[in-house]
Amino acid sequence: MSIFKRYLIAGLLVWLPLGVTIAALIFLVNFFDKSLYLLPVQYRPEALLGFNIPGLGILLSLSMIWLTGMLVANFLGSKIIKLWESFLDQIPLVRSIYKAVKQIAEAVFGNDDQTFQKAFLIQYPRSGLWTLAFQTSTQQGEAQAKTGINEVVNLFVPTTPNPTSGFFIMASKNEIIELDINVDDALKMVISGGVVVPPWKPDEKKQDVLDAPKEQFVPPVSEK
Q1: How confident is the model at residue 220 (pLDDT cuts 50, 70, 90)?
Q2: Preceding amide of 161 cis, omega within 30
Q3: Does the global pTM surpass 0.85?
Q4: CA 113 to chain centre
């Protein structure tokens, strides 16, 4: 029975990720192929070629996204976007959803060096327990200034296995450890719950920094 179970698990480890990958690819192809409905009927592949080409919607979607980015990157495009956002700002519910999604998208995909471009190691939720956090910005506002910390870093602590939810904390730069791994590898470790650990070779120049004692970070406990 143990041999049967071992072979069964070995087979699942091969077919399960392969099946999930194929299912995800099929879902994405079918999802993006719906963008072909934006074309006039006479210009769709089945009308021009007589048959449908799976995955052609991905090319159309990428082309539309690229053209949109090219348009909004110039002065005129930015003015149009500002007018469009000012219009959406007049709609209460749409305004909240649009701003929230835009801020998240800018944090994840933005080119700013301060937005989700660094991974940190912090002690959370108590001293002695370590977890990964991502820097969102180092901007100083009222909340940051009133902490009394000179170098405040805004951090996002994601949850496992869904990294889109998590906690926002503000910590001193002296109480956190910046990691050498990139954000993608750090996210893989978070999503997998620590099963996927990116390879890492210690840098001798930074070994003294790792061995140096760190101030313990103890999150505040709210009194009920």
Answers
A1: low
A2: yes
A3: no
A4: 14
- Helix, strand, coil percent content, the chain, rounded in steps of 5: 50, 15, 35
Torsion of CA 169, 175, 180, 185, to 10 degrees: -30
Which three-class secondary structure state does DSSP give residue 119? strand
Residues 129-169 have pLDDT tens digits of 999 999 887 778 888 888 888 888 889 998 888 877 888 88
The ranges assigned to domains in the chain are: 2-92, 119-200
Q: Is 149 helix (H, G, I), strand (E, B) or coil?
A: coil
Residue 152: closest CA among 165, 132, 169 = 169
Contact 57, 36 (CB under 8 A): yes
Q: What is the 3-state secondary structure (H, E, C) of 154-223?
A: EEEEECCCCCCCEEEEEEEHHHCEECCCCHHHHHHHHHCCCCCCCCCCCCHHHHHHHHCCCCCCCCCCCC
Beta bridge partners of 121: 132, 177
Choice among 36-45, 123-132, 183-192 with the minimum mean pLDDT: 36-45
- As a whole number, the mean pLDDT across the chain is 81
Q: Directed axis angle between helix 56-72 and helix 2-33, to 10°?
A: 60
C-alpha atoms less than 13 angstroms from C-alpha of 118 in its C-beta half-sphere? 18
